[in-house]
């Protein structure tokens, strides 16, 4: 009888460990178990969306306030259109707020950072953020640096 109780205890402990790992994997991947709750959609247009993915976080002052739900190409302006799903409790963002594609660390994941503007009109469901800053592409930066150093050597 004592052996059976020990086996049941070990089994429950293993089940709790597997459940904890599953919840950790869901949290790290950006997926959620429950519903999103009250949210609204806002659009932003960028010249370059390199590295940004669906389910990337949207932050303001370091606090996550939403996520990226869609990325597509606008056929009229040939710019990347990003659909942001923002939390409903952050419903007082000014219309002239700025959206920037940022990198966590030197080579980390890309996410969108919102900087607050000063307009009295607020973003509503379906609004567009017009002031955006595109993603910094490390290869372009290295290319410009190398090209600039080559031009300096030729001038001397």
TrEMBL record:
Q: Which GO terms describe its molecular function?
A: phospholipid binding; phospholipid transporter activity
Q: Where does the Mce/MlaD domain lie?
A: 39-116
Question: Pfam families from the xrefs?
Answer: MlaD
Q: Which InterPro entries match?
A: ABC_MlaD, Mce/MlaD, MlaD_Phospholipid_Transporter
| Protein name in the entry | Phospholipid/cholesterol/gamma-HCH transport system substrate-binding protein
């Amino acid at each position: 009888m004592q052996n059976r109780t020990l086996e049941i205890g070990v089994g429950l402990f293993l089940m709790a460990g597997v459940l904890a790992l599953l919840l950790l994997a869901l949290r790290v991947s950006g997926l959620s178990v429950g519903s999103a709750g009250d949210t609204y959609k806002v659009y932003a247009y960028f010249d370059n969306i390199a590295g940004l993915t669906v389910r990337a976080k949207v932050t303001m002052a370091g606090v996550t306030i939403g996520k990226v739900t869609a990325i597509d190409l606008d056929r009229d302006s040939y710019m990347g259109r990003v659909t942001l799903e923002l939390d409903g409790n952050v419903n007082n963002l000014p219309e002239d707020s700025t959206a920037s594609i940022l990198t966590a660390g030197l080579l980390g994941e890309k996410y969108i950072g919102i900087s607050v503007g000063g307009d009295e009109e607020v973003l509503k469901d379906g609004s567009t953020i017009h002031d955006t800053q595109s993603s910094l592409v490390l290869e372009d930066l290295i290319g410009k640096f190398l090209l600039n150093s080559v031009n300096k050597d030729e001038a001397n």
